[in-house]
Structure formats: structure tokens, C-alpha cells
Design brief:
By secondary structure, the protein is α/β, with parallel strands linked by helices. The protein is built from twelve helices and 16 strands. β7, α6 and β8 form a beta-alpha-beta unit. It starts with a helix and ends in a 5-residue tail after the last helix.
């Protein structure tokens, strides 16, 4: 017999330790997934408007078959030779700029970002990193220092190597050409050099998802990227959330932002939920890293994970899911704009492809964040069978990031429900 919610929470605290996070005031016990749908233990269906991990849909048949077939054939590590890792890297790098031609595969995005930072040190001989002040790049001892909200009181002395720039905010602090952001980067580059640490890399999500995916024109990152290159540093693009066609306009968000990074970091959606991450860079950068660190990961690049990842690329291509993201995303923002005209609490609407959302405010003139109200809306939507979340500096931006097969009919259900929830949820 299944545990009750209270029993689940008590057992989690007992067996997993305190403060293990859950979503929603009333956590959900999911038991099944298919496409863009999830089912709880009572058999209730929920429309998944949040999860980018099952990128091509929950329990995607092509991915399930690839995992099952490979698991029934062989699974080992990369100190033995196997074809699948080479086939995958070749297909993956063929989707990127020609300079991004070599990869290291890991199990998580945290591991991949950790490698990316060490690549920057290996190539530049310096350790100074620049990140935005409202982001998240993982939870290793090194990478956690990039996320101010998650930093422990002690950073093992690593915090001295990280400097922050203000996360872009197109709603409150417009920077239409990216030059103000670039000026902040320039100032922190100088600070690293003056401190004697030296500047190694700028790391960003090229679409700034955790920062609330500000509304920037294509090419916005180019001024900052030019500064980084001129200073001898590396540009690291964390595409864990923004990659694999999610923006609808490009397969990779770095293309949308008008730059070619030195290093691309991949994770969550890479193998549709099978634990996998990766780092893609030039052969020379990877060689510098490998000569300096002799890195090996027992499970990174195993045949089963690579088979799943290959299936994801094949599904994206065969089902034309990037075009679907563009088409449905445009429709979704049209629906959101109509809701904005109806409800003053919607201060701003933004997004690209299957990343879209609205920033909720108590007053459009002051742009005061409606953070507590946003929580209530998200929980009300959960009770109505729609799951999504929030993000941004003030945690008042609706985070809608569904699996790539999400349809216009799915969008209609989402926004019809949101319309009803907003009409029945008071600001006070």
C-alpha cells in the first residue's frame, strides 16, 4: 500500500535527511508519465508544463527502446572501446559550430560545469571566473560558488575566484544592445586581474533562464563575448536548460545570442532523463584539459546513456520538434498577451520557443514583484492539474518549460486554466 503524503515526508526526512525540497504546498506522488502528461498515485492526470528533462516527452518510445536494447546488449565504461560514444559525439558536434568538435561526457551538468571551469584554468593559466548574481550552474564545491543563493557559509576558499555581474533584467533595467552588461563584465575582468588572480572565463546560460529569461534581441551577448576574447578568457555557455532547440529559433541558444563559445555545457535533457552531461569544446581546449587533469568518469559516456542521447537527437530531427517549439511558443505568447490585457497582475510577457512565462507584479507602475501571489497561483494551478514553477531574482516569473512535443491544444488547456485561476486568486 502506498504511503500517505505525511508518511512520505516523514520517511524522506528520516531516510534522506532534513530540508529535502519538494514542489508545491501539497507535494505530488507521480507514478507514471507519457508524452507531456504525468499521473499521480490516484490516477489523476497532470499536464507537464515544467520538465525539460524528458525533453522529447516522458517515456518516449524511441528512447525507451534505445535504452532497453543497449542495456540488454552491453554497458561498460570508456576504458573499453565502444562505438556508441563516438557515434553520439560525432552527431552532436555536427549540430554545432565547426570549432566545437570534441566532447567529454559526464553524468550530470554539475560535473560538466566543473570540467568547463577547469578547462578555463588549463587554457589560460588563471582562475578568475565571472558569473551572474542570480543564476545556478550546479552543486559541486567549485560550481556551487557560481550561485549566490546556494553558497554555503564556507566555500573551501574557492569563493575568492568568483566575481559577479548583475543578471540582466529587460523589464526593470533594459539593456537593448548588451553594452551595459558588457561594461559590468569588463569591470570584473579588471578586478580579477588587479587582485592577482587573473581572468579565466565568463560562464552564462546564453538565454539566462534562471534569471527570468529576459527579453533580448538576437545577438545580445556579442559585446560581452568580444570583451572576454580580447581579455584572453574563455566563454562558457551553459546550455543545460536552453539547448537542444528549446528556443525554437535555433538548436543552441548561443546561436540566438550571436556568439560562438569556447565551451558548451550540456546536461538534463541530453538523454531524456537518463543521467548524462557533457562538455563540448575545440580539440585543442580538450587536449589542454586532458593533459593537465587526466580526467576519467566511470559512468560518463557509457553505452546505455549514449544510446539514449542518440535517440533524443534522432527524435528531435524526425519529429521536427524545434519547429514545433517555435510554432507553439509563438502561439503561447499570443495567449499570454491576451491574459496580460485582462489582468493587471501580469506585468511582462516574454520567452522564445518552449520557454515562456509572465512576470507577476502588484503594481505595473512600480513593478513591485508579486512573489507571494505567484506562489499561490502555482499552487492553484497544481490543484487544477497543471504543473509549472517560478524563477527569477524575485521568484515572481512563471516558469513554463514543457517537453518539446507540447502542442497548441496543450497550450490552450494551460492558458484556459491560468485564466480561471487568475480570475479567482486575489492579490490581497
Amino acid at each position: 500500500m502506498s504511503r500517505t503524503t505525511s508518511e512520505f515526508l516523514a520517511d524522506r526526512a528520516r531516510l534522506m535527511g532534513p530540508n529535502v525540497s519538494t514542489f508545491y504546498d501539497e507535494p505530488i506522488h507521480f507514478v507514471k508519465g507519457e508524452g507531456v502528461w504525468l499521473w499521480d498515485a490516484e490516477g489523476r492526470a497532470y499536464l507537464d508544463c515544467y520538465n525539460n528533462v524528458p525533453h522529447v516527452g516522458h517515456c518516449n518510445p524511441r528512447v525507451v527502446e534505445a535504452i532497453s536494447h543497449q542495456a540488454a546488449t552491453l554497458n561498460t565504461h570508456t576504458r573499453y572501446l565502444h562505438d556508441t560514444i563516438l557515434d553520439y559525439i560525432e552527431k552532436l558536434t555536427a549540430t554545432m559550430h565547426a570549432s566545437l568538435n570534441t566532447a567529454i561526457l559526464t553524468c550530470t551538468g554539475s560535473e560538466a560545469n566543473d570540467i568547463a571551469l577547469r578547462m578555463a584554468e588549463a587554457v589560460t593559466g588563471k582562475r578568475g571566473i565571472i558569473s551572474t548574481d542570480a543564476t545556478y550552474h550546479g552543486n559541486s564545491a567549485l560550481v556551487s560558488q557560481l550561485s549566490q543563493s546556494n553558497n554555503p557559509a564556507s566555500g573551501f576558499g574557492l569563493e575568492q575566484y568568483v566575481r559577479f555581474v548583475q543578471a540582466p533584467d529587460s523589464y526593470r533595467n533594459p539593456d537593448p544592445d548588451g553594452r551595459a552588461f558588457a561594461a559590468q563584465v569588463a569591470a570584473q575582468i579588471d578586478a580579477h586581474e588587479c587582485a592577482g588572480i587573473g581572468f579565466a572565463a565568463l560562464i552564462v546560460c546564453p538565454y539566462f533562464l534562471n534569471e527570468g529569461f529576459p527579453d533580448h534581441p538576437d545577438g545580445w551577448l556579442k559585446p560581452a563575448a568580444d570583451l572576454v576574447r580580447n581579455a584572453g578568457g574563455l566563454i562558457i555557455c551553459d546550455e543545460v536548460q536552453s539547448g537542444f532547440g528549446r528556443t525554437g529559433t535555433h538548436l543552441w541558444a548561443y546561436e540566438k545570442m550571436g556568439i560562438v563559445p569556447d565551451v558548451v555545457v550540456l546536461g538534463k535533457p541530453m538523454a531524456n532523463g537518463h543521467p548524462m552531461g557533457g562538455v563540448v569544446a575545440s580539440h585543442d581546449i580538450v587536449a589542454e584539459f586532458r593533459n593537465g587533469y587526466r580526467y576519467f568518469n566511470t559512468f560518463g559516456g557509457n553505452p546505455v546513456s549514449c544510446a539514449a542521447a542518440l535517440a533524443v537527437l534522432q527524435e528531435l530531427e524526425d519529429k521536427d520538434l524545434v519547429a514545433n517549439a517555435l510554432r507553439v511558443g509563438l502561439y503561447a505568447r499570443t495567449r499570454l498577451k491576451k491574459l496580460q490585457a485582462k489582468y493587471d497582475v501580469i506585468g511582462d510577457v516574454r520567452g522564445s520557443g518552449l520557454i515562456f512565462g509572465a512576470e507577476l507584479v502588484t503594481d505595473r507602475k512600480t513593478k513591485q514583484p508579486a512573489s507571494e501571489y505567484t506562489d499561490r497561483v502555482i499552487n492553484a494551478m497544481r490543484q487544477r492539474g497543471i504543473i509549472h514553477s517560478k524563477l527569477g531574482r524575485y521568484k515572481n516569473t512563471l516558469k513554463i518549460r514543457p517537453p518539446m512535443p507540447f502542442s497548441m491544444d496543450n497550450a490552450d488547456l494551460l492558458f484556459d486554466t491560468l485564466d480561471d485561476v487568475l480570475s479567482n486568486t486575489s492579490l490581497s
